[in-house]
């Protein structure tokens, strides 16, 4: 592989980008931050100065397309409200850049397909930012299940919740269905859905769901507060999942097998993970050397570009989640199971 670092541009400078993604580049081997795209020029200038970026590599949402003329930028990472992912992915691909996009990939199946097609037509790669699939503890759980450490996998439970705080800039847009596409499911329930898919290694064939909102809570005039969903997998595994915008913070999953179970709690925290394995031999807390999973996913994509390989979490992975979330919403709305 070429001994070089690819140049990355971050589109959207919210809390997640500035506190998690941008600092992660210091741990990257094949990726470096070279450009910023923001609707807040003062913030962009401040961050550019902090990270020693060339001021000429700052763009806004109007002149974003001119990034095509900047050979320093190889990859664009879209970190915008959900409904804007499709537009900025398509524009970025048409500018001749590879695209990484935050999850959820988009707010509709149609938009996901447009994103995949735009990158295909441009001859550029597309990856979705599923950081848990690059995180040490989540990968260990997959390994334990595949190696039969808990026997035959029978059931998965996964719960993700946090209180939605619209007074905070990072949450204000999440109350707006046009921007967010949905509520807790789109934001954090997707982690529960993802966990079931990568722990089983299968795709669900049937979905049931229920949804509820607290009456007169203005946060949930447009988006759902609580949603529970059950999945049936072709190999016989069942899954029960939940997401909420009013739970005390939780981000965990459990996998139950014929000879043991594993609990990862927290499972999808930015920094902290606790993994417990229970079998006839006893209870073992498994300690691992954690990794910077933001740097890991960023470098994975750079390596895929340099080696011309398909990313582990390509656009098709994001499309599948959006298809399944639409089925979850349908099942909740109709009160009937949905075959998928």
UniProtKB/TrEMBL annotation:
Q: Where is the Gfo/Idh/MocA-like oxidoreductase C-terminal domain?
A: 143-340
Q: Which InterPro entries match?
A: Gfo/Idh/MocA-like_OxRdtase_C, Gfo/Idh/MocA-like_OxRdtase_N, Gfo/Idh/MocA_Oxidoreductases, Glc-Fru_OxRdtase_bac, NAD(P)-bd_dom_sf
Q: Which GO terms describe its molecular function?
A: nucleotide binding
Residues of the signal peptide = none
Which SUPFAM superfamilies has this protein been placed in?
Glyceraldehyde-3-phosphate dehydrogenase-like, C-terminal domain, NAD(P)-binding Rossmann-fold domains
Under the heading Pfam families, the entry gives: GFO_IDH_MocA, GFO_IDH_MocA_C
Start and end of every Gfo/Idh/MocA-like oxidoreductase N-terminal domain? 7-130
Protein name (database record) = Gfo/Idh/MocA family oxidoreductase
């Amino acid at each position: 592989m070429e001994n070089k670092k690819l140049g990355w541009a971050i589109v959207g400078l919210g809390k997640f980008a500035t506190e998690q993604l941008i600092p992660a580049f210091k741990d990257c081997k094949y990726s470096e931050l070279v450009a910023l795209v923001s609707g807040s020029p003062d913030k962009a200038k401040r961050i550019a100065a902090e990270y020693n970026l060339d001021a000429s590599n700052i763009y806004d949402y109007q002149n974003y397309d001119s990034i095509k003329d900047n050979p320093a930028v190889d990859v664009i990472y879209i970190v915008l409200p959900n409904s804007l992912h499709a537009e900025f992915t398509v524009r970025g691909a048409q500018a001749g850049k590879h695209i990484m996009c935050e999850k959820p990939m988009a707010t509709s199946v149609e938009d996901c397909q447009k994103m995949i097609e735009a990158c295909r037509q441009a001859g550029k790669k597309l990856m979705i930012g599923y950081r848990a699939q690059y995180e040490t503890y989540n990968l260990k759980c997959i390994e334990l299940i595949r190696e039969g450490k808990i026997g035959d996998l029978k059931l998965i439970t996964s719960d993700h919740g946090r209180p939605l705080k619209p007074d905070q800039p990072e949450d204000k847009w999440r109350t707006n269905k046009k921007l967010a596409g949905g509520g807790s499911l789109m934001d954090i329930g997707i982690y529960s859905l993802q966990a079931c898919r990568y722990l089983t290694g299968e795709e669900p064939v049937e979905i049931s769901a229920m949804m509820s909102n607290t009456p007169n809570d203005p946060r949930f005039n447009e988006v759902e507060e609580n949603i529970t969903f059950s999945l049936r997998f072709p190999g016989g595994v069942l899954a029960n999942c939940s997401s909420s915008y009013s739970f005390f913070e939780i981000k965990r999953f459990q996998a139950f097998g014929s000879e043991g179970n594993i609990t990862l709690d927290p499972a999808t925290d930015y920094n902290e993970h606790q993994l417990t394995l229970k079998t006839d031999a006893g209870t073992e807390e498994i300690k691992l050397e954690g990794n910077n999973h933001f740097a890991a996913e960023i470098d994975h994509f750079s390596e895929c570009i340099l080696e011309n390989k398909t990313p582990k979490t390509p656009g098709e992975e994001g499309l599948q989640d959006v298809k399944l979330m639409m089925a979850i919403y349908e099942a909740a709305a109709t009160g009937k199971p949905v075959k998928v």
